[in-house]
Design goal:
This protein is of the alpha/beta class. The protein is 49% helix and 12% strand.
């Protein structure tokens, strides 16, 4: 007998019988304890929603394709996420650890599917159309744009996803859309651009993430990365609080004593130079370095005519060009030491 989940974004989400064992699996339930937007709730207080909700939402949208294997992939696509989602994943990479949440997902797939009628072969078949889940117009992005918009209060992320889904299909690694849906696709990329600039790459959020990254760097001296990625948010916070080396900077994050950005630079080397000088002057824990990356990457969306959507839509091309210009590196410092940074260059742009 199917079950229904009440979702503030999509309304009722129906979970059919064949998917219930997956939703009830401990590895999937763990996602209840992982925030979708990491530390963004310190900037947008409503952003406390979970990866669990997001996976249910992605599954809900995917059902419009009327392919249970696509829905299977949509439901489990995030089971490998570490605590605080991409914040910790990026922190591990910054520490030189080769980590990918998809690799962790693969570790658990056999066990997750063991109580279902689905097999790993079924999942591999679904992944051949994986662009419908994780591609440029995939249900993953559709749900998180709508969901993150709702919970942050940044209304620009709202999408009419039904038309896009009805008029799109997968072809290898490309998403193919009908010419009639160009305006809907443009709306999607507008939402993505604005949510990227306003929420995901918000300057204060980036500083917070850099502080958390430093806390993770400290914690790795006491806890292995294999242990960290198995935690949920609560477990990680407990580990930070109990860590002799990480608790100081984590305490500043919790108290929202966010470091002040004192310089932005076009060149990473210039930022590193300033960071190194400040680190020697005020101490490693009192200064962080980070970057505002590009929201853009090459877009694999084509019309049925074979034309890339970027070549067809001047609007999307403009958004791509605008985002390319927004990348920068920054240095931020503990506000108690601001009087010591007057001699440092505040801009390299």
């Amino acid at each position: 007998m199917p079950k229904y989940a009440r979702d503030p974004v999509h309304g009722e989400i129906k979970l059919e019988d064949e998917f219930l064992p997956i939703a009830d699996h401990p590895r999937f339930q763990r996602l209840r304890g992982i925030k979708q937007l990491g530390m963004a709730h310190l900037v947008y207080p409503g952003a406390t929603h979970s990866r669990f909700l997001h996976c249910l939402g992605s599954y809900h949208i995917s059902k419009a394709f009327e392919d249970p294997l696509i829905s299977l992939y949509a439901l489990i696509h995030d089971v490998g996420h570490p605590p605080l989602s991409h914040v910790v994943e990026s922190a591990l990479k910054n520490a030189g650890i080769d980590f990918d949440h998809d690799t962790i997902s693969n570790k658990y797939l056999r066990d997750i599917l063991s109580g279902t009628n689905f097999s790993l072969t079924d999942l591999k078949r679904a992944m051949r159309k994986g662009t419908l889940v994780h591609g440029d117009l995939g249900v993953d992005r559709m749900d998180y744009l709508i969901r993150d918009s709702y919970y942050t209060g940044v209304t620009s992320g709202y999408l009419h996803w039904q038309r896009m889904v009805r008029l799109m299909r997968a072809e290898k690694e490309k998403t193919i859309v009908h010419p009639k849906s160009v305006e809907s696709v443009e709306q999607f990329f507008i939402a993505r651009y604005i949510m990227g600039s306003t929420v995901y790459l918000h300057k204060t959020n980036l500083v917070i993430e850099s502080m958390v990254s430093k806390a993770v760097e400290h914690l790795l001296h006491e806890v292995s990365h294999k242990e960290i990625v198995e935690m949920d948010d609560t477990s990680l916070v407990t580990a930070f609080r109990n860590s002799e080396s990480a608790k100081t900077i984590w305490s500043r994050v919790e108290k929202r004593q966010i470091y002040k950005r004192i310089g932005v630079y076009n060149e990473e080397e210039k930022a590193k130079q300033v960071y190194t000088q400040l680190k020697d002057k005020v101490g490693s824990d009192n200064v962080v370095i980070g970057k505002r990356g590009k929201w853009y990457k090459p877009i694999s969306v084509e019309l049925e005519t074979g034309e890339n959507i970027v070549d067809v839509s001047p609007l999307i091309r403009t958004l791509v060009d605008a985002d390319k210009k927004k990348q920068y590196y920054f240095v931020a410092i503990n506000r108690d030491y601001l009087s010591q940074v007057k001699t440092f260059p505040q801009s390299g742009i």
